[in-house]
């Protein structure tokens, strides 16, 4: 179908450069972190302030593009005057706050959170875990081999992606990405309660029966590999997945006119998955089914020669 | 919004149940009859469509109560009616214990096996039921009934307790306390045969309030004396006098009186009530709606005082709330009532409609230009919904997961608007404060614990029930007032403040029952629970039941609590089985580390206190060596 | 206001941005014959009859004027022809619009008022507006509304055609329009042509070229005998499939350069396998928001498959022209030197800024986030923006008792155009092509869901299974154009072409459905 919309007012005579209204001026807030003074714009979080000082704070459920849910608690810090530790990722910086990010209390809580997770969830494909575990000396083994876990078989109900909830740390990111923070499809939600809480479609119906539109935006935000492209899953199963042989190249989606940036992950001359950069103003890391999975046509018919 | 539904269709009964709650659908788009002439040409929705989410919990209740379980078709229909995604509706429904998402017999007995009932033979009752009816959770009596083990039903003064609910066109609920296996079976039978009476049982006040009728009572003075259903009688015993006076002196002065009274919240957190109200009053000019909520979710094991008050003096709760509304500028109030309190629900509903009729709720109250109305909301089996921010989410139609604070409820509470949450007991103190004046009230009790307090005395005690005292007496005095230790008479331990509280030893009975007194010995008053255990009780079992309670009741949102309560229970089980990993000492050290992390890093009070009873026991006894 | 656009499915990530606005309180109005997934988000959906957009737009214009909601200051300052427009729309009363469009007058009134009163308003459209025989009239009818209310040329207030393909905008920008050079510079303008002639060192035909439909006409008359097709599949995508096949098959010589061996390629004398532009070549594309962005080589093309540029350069060499190394950046720099609106977009800046929205005149220019700001400049820069008087005209393919059902077309979320690209991955959303009709029509024609029916238009007939869609009303049916092997939709559609833009009336076909005996 051709798509030649008329352009009655083009080319446009040159006028003043249009501008977006300037962002509201934000006052600065001064606080102290680990003895160092730091100033951040009002509305910033403790995490923002710590990052500004170059203090590396572990995070699992936090993502720049999603509203903080502050549930994993691995980012907690000690705030003077507060009975309990506070989550750096969501707590707003206030003037005069005095914060410790590496006190004994902080280290203990972070270590316990990591131990709790690693003892109940398979974190073998969660890229951040090994580093954090080492840093806090986490020993998930100490709860013994009978410690209850969320182990269960992976759900493979479609050809595009796999849901392996034995790897799920319940960070809520996928729910947010599927819901109000990006996709607004609401195919999945948290169901059940307590240790039995889990990510689920209604009545755990297969994805193919659910509202899912296969945008893959949940996979894009999952920090543990619980949600994984089928292409990656299959290669991992076959033992051929090898990130050291992969390249990543940014390009533009070949489908509609939105112009989403695609990061093409290539291994051995083939596309193995597609993501999008989080800091991209068009996509914020999100894509639709065509951009995310529609690349197969360059693979399927290789060689395409007549 | 574009909602996708599975192919499951609602039955006519399910539709009727939902429509009865929500009213008939307006167009074909939201589940009604399709009229192509109009529906095919315009549809309105958008912002309006999702704005009825707060009706979700009542809609789910309607289906559960009429059908006995909530099917995929019913979830679809509710979703369509409210413009919500089915996955989210399912997520919400599966949060609550009283909702069944699998087919279940219509008649169900919830049998308490929590700690107070454990001291009064609940284990025996459950064992007998197993023999008679088969295992808990399985259909029995020809597939028409089932019995379930339940956490504390808030009937601890009459332990052991049971609650029977029979779903159907006209749903029925009955409590049985004290309960026997035979009695439960009989009720189930009556339920199946449709013979349960419409009225819930009026529990005798005398049994719940041993002090009833005694002259020096203040908060409890009407209970058992004047009729709980008669507004006239309420008015004759100074009812609504305080509201009149409050209107007279105006919001600022009311807030002043309550601040002066030094009233601290009775729901557990002991926050100054006046300060809360002041925060709302100060925001009046910003033009946002304000809300007052009466927290009647009372689910802390061992707690039943709010139930007794609501059943026996419901108008006092309404008057307290109306004064709160006047003071805070709220036009709308909610009573969030625990789902397992059918009789209190009946009494409150009756009182609300009587008050409306008498011009004491609604527009232009007492002809003085005050507008305020109250909606009664029933929970559905989730202890966590008593946590104030979880309660907001529950009313709004979300999962009852607590929110991180700040922002505090006074800034962004229900529907993200300034909200004051007050416990039932807190609220019934308010009319007294207004009548006697804040400063006079503050003189009652001790400097830091002003006024009157209700105690939930239960367990191995001679006369269990709700007791009222001014602050200041000791634990020993209270136990004596309740007739002393029962069971075998040899006191082993007292649990103060409920499952989230702390154990004390018989050596500590002289602790003054004040906020500061209990704090000094590392305990808490919590919700006023005073639960006695004689020395025949295996405290380890009690600790394990408490650990299981938290495991069952954690919302599961944050890691320290979700996994911590499981690891805590597992460790306890190993210690009890004397099969520690490593040594007992390493296990105990691990328990303490977990406790520390739960206390420090959990989002809400549940996780923060889930280890406190256990740790208080570890501090006092060498249980595991 | 989304008009004739199902962006939820056709521009999903754009819709994310839209929903962010909705979540912050923005109101959404959707005007579409079908209650689409986009429409389900709307505060109000107006389900007009196919091809009655002008009636609706004119009535809204009349109502805005009558209610005193027109932006008088803007109209005086920056537009022309208002008085004529006012007179012209006088006859488009709400009642008339209700009669012609089927939408209740009150809903039209409310929508008009909401649009006019909004502090900021965007008016977006897609193929629902442009795939008509009077596409340009449709568009100007909408632009009238923007001019009337001043919702143009300001931040977050404007008109926005959503482009269906990743680089249609870029193609037009680069001069792939019969009468334009890159940067929309007119071929028939002597001064501009001279500039290009100087740069290329040779004469350029001062006559504008033909658009697609024009080419087919020329083929019909034997005036066009030789065709070089780059990345198009007209056999599947043209409105009248049989005619396209016949005409292209009858050409003397045809070259097809494509990623795939398409149905069109099957008719060609020479097929040149081309690399996938988006991941096997370097270059730029331009999105719907005029953002020029870089595409890059992410994977090597299969053996024997070459970059379009290489192929064209090679052809040039065989024709005796040595153009130097076939490098995308060199070509881009040539564009920048000739097209002022691309002047400032060096690869380096595109890289650093993550794309630039044209116009971008020089390397200190940031690009422009919206156009037509000049209309608000005081004094006005450039010509006044004209109101246009256009009349409602029903679709060319009339409904009658033999063909009583209006068939319209569109796309599905997981599929794209003729599906040569999107057909290659295993989409769980994909279901076979169906003729979507309202449940009421199902009853009326006594067909079950899934039952195969014969669908006939005045041009041809196809067999398709039926599916009920409550988003449709009686008398309205829907097909996609994605699945030619199952249902060749363009066997049915009419090739009534808009003379001004060359687009075909895919959106309005008269059909009938009959039970199919071979069930
Ligand atoms: C897990 C949990 C459960 C709670 N349950 C109740 C309850 O059932 N009733 C209640 O009044 N407060 C309960 N609270 C305390 C409330 O969060 C809140 O502090 C209280 O309702 C405020 O009222 P007050 O100031 O009158 O005490 C609970 C808190 C937590 C953390
Ligand atoms: S599936 Fe992944 S993104 Fe979703 S909650 Fe689990 S870990 Fe988080
Ligand atoms: S990812 Fe989807 S929305 Fe983005 S450009 Fe591609 S097709 Fe369009
Ligand atoms: S502490 Fe427990 S109950 Fe509270 S929010 Fe966290 S998981 Fe939920
Ligand atoms: S990163 Fe802050 S709580 Fe998870
Ligand atoms: S009713 Fe059983 S413990 Fe409270």
Summarize the structure.
The complex is a heterotrimer of chains A (306), B (625) and C (519). Chain A is built from eight helices and twelve strands.
Please render the helix and strand layout as text:
The complex is a heterotrimer of chains A (306), B (625) and C (519).
Chain A: E1 28-33, E2 36-41, H1 46-52, E3 76-79, E4 86-87, E5 98-100, H2 104-120, H3 129-136, E6 161-163, H4 173-178, E7 189-191, E8 198-200, H5 217-221, E9 227-229, H6 230-238, E10 246-252, E11 261-267, E12 270-275, H7 289-293, H8 296-300
Parallel strand pairs in A: 1-5
Antiparallel strand pairs in A: 1-2, 3-4, 3-5, 6-9, 7-8, 10-11, 11-12
Chain B: H1 12-22, H2 36-39, E1 42-44, H3 56-67, H4 72-82, H5 86-93, E2 107-112, H6 115-118, H7 122-133, E3 139-140, E4 145-150, E5 162-166, E6 172-176, H8 181-192, H9 205-208, H10 231-236, H11 241-261, H12 273-281, E7 291-296, H13 305-312, H14 314-328, E8 332-337, H15 342-357, E9 362-365, E10 370-378, H16 388-396, E11 419-423, H17 424-436, H18 438-442, E12 452-459, E13 465-470, H19 475-481, E14 491-496, E15 502-504, H20 515-520, E16 529-534, H21 539-553, H22 559-576, H23 584-601, H24 605-609, H25 612-620
Parallel strand pairs in B: 2-4, 7-8, 7-11, 8-10, 12-16
Antiparallel strand pairs in B: 2-5, 3-4, 5-6, 9-10, 12-13, 14-15, 14-16
Helix pairs in contact in B: 1-3, 1-4, 3-4, 7-8, 11-12, 11-14, 11-17, 13-14, 13-15, 14-17, 21-22, 22-23
Chain C: E1 2-3, H1 7-10, H2 12-23, E2 29-31, E3 44-46, H3 53-66, H4 72-78, E4 79-80, H5 82-89, H6 94-101, H7 105-117, E5 122-125, H8 127-130, H9 135-149, E6 158-161, H10 168-173, E7 180-181, E8 185-186, H11 190-200, H12 212-220, E9 226-230, H13 234-237, H14 241-249, E10 253-258, E11 270-273, H15 277-280, E12 283-286, E13 291-295, H16 308-318, H17 328-338, H18 347-353, E14 356-357, E15 385-386, E16 405-410, E17 435-437, H19 439-444, E18 452-457, E19 461-468, E20 476-480, E21 509-515
Parallel strand pairs in C: 1-2, 1-5, 2-3, 4-15, 5-6, 9-10, 10-11, 16-20, 17-19
Antiparallel strand pairs in C: 7-8, 12-13, 13-14, 16-21, 17-20, 18-19, 18-21
Helix pairs in contact in C: 3-6, 3-7, 3-9, 6-7
């Amino acid at each position: 179908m051709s798509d030649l919309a008329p352009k009655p007012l083009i080319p446009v005579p040159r006028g003043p450069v249009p501008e977006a209204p300037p962002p509201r001026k934000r006052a600065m807030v001064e606080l102290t972190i680990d003895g160092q003074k730091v100033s951040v714009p009002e509305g910033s979080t403790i995490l923002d302030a710590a990052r500004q000082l170059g203090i590396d704070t572990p995070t699992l459920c936090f993502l720049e593009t999603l509203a903080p849910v502050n549930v994993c608690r691995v980012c907690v810090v000690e705030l003077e005057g507060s009975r309990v530790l506070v989550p750096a990722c969501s707590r707003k910086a206030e003037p005069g706050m005095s914060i410790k990010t590496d006190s004994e209390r902080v280290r203990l809580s972070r270590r316990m959170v990591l131990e709790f997770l690693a003892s109940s969830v398979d974190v073998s494909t969660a890229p951040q875990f090994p580093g954090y575990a080492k840093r806090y000396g986490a020993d998930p083994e100490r709860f013994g081999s009978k410690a209850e876990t969320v182990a269960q078989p992976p759900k493979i109900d479609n050809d595009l992606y796999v849901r392996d909830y034995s790897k799920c740390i319940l960070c809520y990111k996928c729910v947010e990405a599927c819901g109000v923070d990006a996709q607004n499809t609401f195919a999945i939600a948290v169901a059940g309660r307590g240790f039995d809480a889990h990510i689920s479609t209604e009545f755990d119906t297969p994805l193919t029966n659910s509202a899912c539109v296969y945008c893959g935006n949940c996979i894009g935000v999952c920090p543990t590999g619980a949600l994984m492209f089928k292409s990656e899953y299959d290669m991992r199963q076959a033992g051929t997945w090898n990130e050291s042989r992969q390249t990543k190249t940014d390009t533009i989606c070949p489908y509609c006119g939105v112009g989403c940036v695609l990061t093409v992950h290539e291994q051995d001359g083939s596309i193995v998955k597609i993501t999008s950069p989080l800091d991209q103003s068009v996509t914020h890391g999100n894509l639709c089914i065509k951009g995310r999975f529609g690349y197969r046509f360059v693979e399927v018919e290789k060689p395409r020669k007549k | 919004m574009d909602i996708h539904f599975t192919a499951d269709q609602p039955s006519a009964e399910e539709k009727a149940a939902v429509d009865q709650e929500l009213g008939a659908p307006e167009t074909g788009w939201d589940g009604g009859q399709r009229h192509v002439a109009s529906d095919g040409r315009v549809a309105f929705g958008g912002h309006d469509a999702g704005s009825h989410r707060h009706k979700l919990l009542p809609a789910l209740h309607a289906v559960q109560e009429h059908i006995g379980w909530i099917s995929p078709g019913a979830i679809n229909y509710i979703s369509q009616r409210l413009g919500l995604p089915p996955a989210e509706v399912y997520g919400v429904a599966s949060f609550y214990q009283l909702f069944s998402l699998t087919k279940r017999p219509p008649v169900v007995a919830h049998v308490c096996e929590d700690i107070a009932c454990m001291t009064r033979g609940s284990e025996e009752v459950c064992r007998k039921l197993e023999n008679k009816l088969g295992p808990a959770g399985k259909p029995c009596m020809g597939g028409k009934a089932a019995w379930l083990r339940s956490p504390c039903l808030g009937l601890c003064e009459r332990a052991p307790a049971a609650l029977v609910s029979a779903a159907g066109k006209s749903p029925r609920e009955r409590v049985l306390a004290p309960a026997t296996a035979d009695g439960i079976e009989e009720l189930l039978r009556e339920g199946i045969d449709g013979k349960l009476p419409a009225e819930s049982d009026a529990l005798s006040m005398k049994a719940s309030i041993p002090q009833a009728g005694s002259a020096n009572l203040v908060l409890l003075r009407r209970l058992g004396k004047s009729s709980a259903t008669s507004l006239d009688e309420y008015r004759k015993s100074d009812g609504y006098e305080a509201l009149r006076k409050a209107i007279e002196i105006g919001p600022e002065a009311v807030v002043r009186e309550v601040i002066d009274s030094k009233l601290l919240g009775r729901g557990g957190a002991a926050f100054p009530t006046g300060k809360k109200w002041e925060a709302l009053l100060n925001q009046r000019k910003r033009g946002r709606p304000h809300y007052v909520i009466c927290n009647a979710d009372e689910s802390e094991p061992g707690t039943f005082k709010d139930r007794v008050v609501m059943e026996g003096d419901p108008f006092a709760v309404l008057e307290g709330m109306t004064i709160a509304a006047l003071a805070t500028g709220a036009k709308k109030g909610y009573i969030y009532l625990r789902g397992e309190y059918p009789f209190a629900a009946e009494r409150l509903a009756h009182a609300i409609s009587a008050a409306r009729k008498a011009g004491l709720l609604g527009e232009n109250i007492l002809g003085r230009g005050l507008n305020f109305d109250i909606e009664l909301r029933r929970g559905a089996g989730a202890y966590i919904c008593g946590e104030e921010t979880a309660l907001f989410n529950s009313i709004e139609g979300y999962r009852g997961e607590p929110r991180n604070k700040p922002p505090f409820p006074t800034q962004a509470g229900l529907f993200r608007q300034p909200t004051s949450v007050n416990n039932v007991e807190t609220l019934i103190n308010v009319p007294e404060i207004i009548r006697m004046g804040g400063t006079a009230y503050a003189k009652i009790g001790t400097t830091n614990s002003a006024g009157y307090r209700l105690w939930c005395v239960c367990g191995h005690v001679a006369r269990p029930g709700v007791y009222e005292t001014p602050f200041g007496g000791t634990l020993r005095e209270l136990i004596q007032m309740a007739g002393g230790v029962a069971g075998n008479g040899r006191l082993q331990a007292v649990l103060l403040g409920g499952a989230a509280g702390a154990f004390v030893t018989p050596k500590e009975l002289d602790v003054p029952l004040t906020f500061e007194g209990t704090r000094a010995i590392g305990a808490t008053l919590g919700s006023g629970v005073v639960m006695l255990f004689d020395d025949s009780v295996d405290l380890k079992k009690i600790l394990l039941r408490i650990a299981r309670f938290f495991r069952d009741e954690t919302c599961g949102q944050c890691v320290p609590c979700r996994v911590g309560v499981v690891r805590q229970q597992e460790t306890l089980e190993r210690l009890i089985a004397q099969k520690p990993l490593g040594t007992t000492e390493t296990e105990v050290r691990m328990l303490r580390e977990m406790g520390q992390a739960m206390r420090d890093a959990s989002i809400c009070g549940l996780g923060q206190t889930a280890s406190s009873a256990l740790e208080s026991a570890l501090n006092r006894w060498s249980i595991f060596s | 206001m989304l008009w004739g656009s199902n962006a939820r499915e056709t521009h999903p990530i754009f819709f994310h941005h839209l929903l962010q606005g909705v979540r912050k309180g923005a109101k959404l109005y959707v005007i579409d014959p079908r209650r689409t997934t986009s429409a389900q988000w709307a505060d109000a959906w107006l389900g007009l009859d196919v091809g009655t957009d002008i009636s609706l737009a004119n009535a809204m214009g009349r109502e805005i004027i009558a209610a005193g909601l027109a932006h008088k200051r803007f109209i005086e300052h920056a537009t022309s022809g208002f008085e004529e427009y006012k007179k012209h729309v006088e006859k488009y009363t709400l009642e008339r619009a209700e009669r012609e469009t089927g939408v209740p007058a009150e809903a039209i009134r409310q929508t008009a008022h909401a649009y006019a009163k909004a502090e900021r308003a965007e008016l977006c459209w897609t193929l629902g507006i442009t795939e008509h025989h009077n596409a340009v009239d449709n568009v100007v009818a909408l632009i009238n509304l923007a001019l009337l209310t001043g919702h143009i040329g300001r931040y977050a207030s404007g008109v926005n055609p959503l482009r269906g393909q990743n680089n249609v905008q870029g193609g037009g920008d680069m001069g792939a329009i019969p009468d334009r050079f890159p940067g929309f510079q007119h071929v028939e303008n002597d001064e501009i042509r001279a500039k290009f002639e100087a740069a290329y060192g040779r004469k350029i035909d001062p006559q504008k070229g033909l658009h697609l439909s024009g080419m087919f006409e020329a083929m019909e008359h034997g005036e066009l005998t030789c065709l070089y097709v780059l990345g198009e599949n007209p056999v599947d995508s043209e409105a009248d499939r049989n005619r396209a096949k016949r005409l292209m098959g009858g050409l003397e010589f045809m070259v097809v350069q494509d990623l795939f061996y398409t149905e069109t390629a099957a008719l060609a004398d020479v097929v040149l396998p081309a690399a996938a532009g988006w991941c096997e070549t370097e270059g730029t594309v331009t999105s719907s928001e005029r953002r020029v962005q870089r595409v890059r080589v992410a994977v090597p093309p299969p053996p024997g498959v070459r970059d379009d540029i290489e192929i064209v350069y090679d052809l040039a060499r065989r024709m005796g022209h040595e153009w130097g190394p076939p490098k995308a950046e060199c070509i881009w720099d040539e564009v920048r030197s000739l097209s002022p609106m691309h002047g400032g977009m060096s690869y380096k800046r595109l890289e650093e800024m993550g794309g630039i929205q044209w116009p971008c005149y020089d390397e200190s220019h940031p690009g422009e986030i919206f156009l037509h700001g000049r209309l608000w400049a005081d004094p006005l820069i450039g010509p006044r923006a004209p109101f246009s008087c256009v009349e409602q005209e029903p679709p060319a393919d009339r409904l009658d008792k033999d063909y009583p059902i209006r068939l319209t077309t569109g796309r599905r979320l997981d599929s794209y155009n003729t599906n040569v690209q999107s057909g290659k991955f295993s989409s769980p959303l994909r279901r076979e092509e169906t003729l979507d009709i309202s449940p009421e029509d199902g009853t009326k024609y006594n067909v079950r869901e899934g039952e195969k029916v014969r669908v006939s238009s005045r041009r041809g007939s196809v067999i398709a299974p039926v599916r009920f869609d409550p988003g449709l009303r009686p008398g309205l049916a829907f097909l996609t154009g994605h699945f030619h092997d199952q249902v060749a939709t363009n066997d049915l559609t009419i090739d009534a072409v808009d003379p001004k833009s060359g687009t075909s009336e895919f959106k309005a076909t008269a059909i009938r459905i009959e039970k199919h005996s071979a069930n």
